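This protein record is not my work; I was only asked to verify it. Would you go through it and say whether the fold makes sense for this chain? Here is the record exactly as it was handed to me.
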Amino acid sequence: MNDETREAIRSNAKYLRQVRPIDPEEVCSYVESQPHPAVVRQVLREEALDLALIERPDGTFEPVEEAPAETSFSGVDSFPAEYARRLEDLLVEAEGAGWPEGESGNRFRNRLREIKERYRQQQSVDYDEVTALAYALYHLPDYYATTQYVVADLLRDGLVPKRLRVLDVGAGVGGPALGLLDRLPDDALVEYHAVEPSASADVLDAMLETTGPNVHTTIHRTTAEAFDPDGAFDLILFASVLNELDDPSAIVKRYLDSLTDAGSVVAIEPADRNTATGLRRIERAVADDGPATVYSPTVRLWPHQSPSSESWSFDVQPDIDVPAFQRQLDEAATDHYHTSGEFVNVDVQYAYSILRTDGKTAIETRGNHATAAKMADAKSHVTDRIDMLAVKLSHDLADGGNPLYLIGDGSQEIDHFAVLTEESILNEDLRAADYGDLLFFENALVLWNDDEDAYNVVVGSETVVDRVPA
């Protein structure tokens, strides 16, 4: 097809998009060379980003709506079968139908053990084909689920446009990408860019083949440090990658310059103490000493304040169903040191931070000295009963005994824990509130906990705890 025909198709599409859906069969009749409708359809697909077109189920095209993306979300029960089949195809292509068993199965299991051990020792991992496939076996499902929960908050708040430009930094084998793309509505137009230098990019490339016609993907096989973002992005995703970078705060600061004015950086890390607290240090470096604002969950409720507590904060969601490929890999293990479930990973636990540069936060309420005490002043309130604002930053942390929750207001120098000693109708919101919800405590007792080097905010039967609308 020559340039003249392509330009004629574009010109007709530009005109028709203003009056009615673009039908390839209609367009071909307006073009002098009379191209086949299939040729017109292919050109429209290739030019969709430039023309801002989405393809409808009936095969016609129409302009993407300039509006926030809307979608319902009730959680993630399982890893989708179509993605599981695609991963299993890759495993069969690499090792044959018996991939979970014999030498190939042992290779994957031993590689996963190596990955876990290096992770525990905070050492880097080199990704060849075996490592990438092993990582996909273990992490595709939980990363898929985790990303959906985090992105769902932005969608709920109307902060994800239907015409969306995404940059996925350290995209890995594709769990975060698939989770994000599945959470978007079918009528969104997505320009997705992945930055991934390792062999994981091959798995990512194969998994992205399952995406719909309105998702346009590009993989940049380079490092986060070397990549030069081209243009502005509405969403920049760092999923389980910041802990692997030498200077993650500098990287996040640099990529913040590539956000649109209303864009968001979404950073996700595993829930373990090292990576979760590391994420909070990065957050403070770019949000309290840098150009960004914490949108959620650790909103700064007091102006010009920055926390310095450890803040091991993470969210927990229901487990997903065990994928068949994980069960097969686990059940085929025959070595004597194998424990049942060693290669099953269905926990959905994660630390996250959403950053913006427009000053917007998920919670608009701010502290006022006339009505609430500030956590930075906790030392002067020990043994006193106080009123305070706080964000709930954990699920129940108690291993038996009184329910215990990490809370924060963005000014705390030392960790604060709400301890529910006597439950009543007045304080039931403490237990019922979701992670990231804003709470107002009235008549709570502040005590110092020598054993934990932390402050306990004691909630008794006469303490009032109310959820505050965001």
The chain is about 30% helix and 20% strand. The chain has a mean pLDDT of 96. The first strand starts at residue 53 and ends at 55.
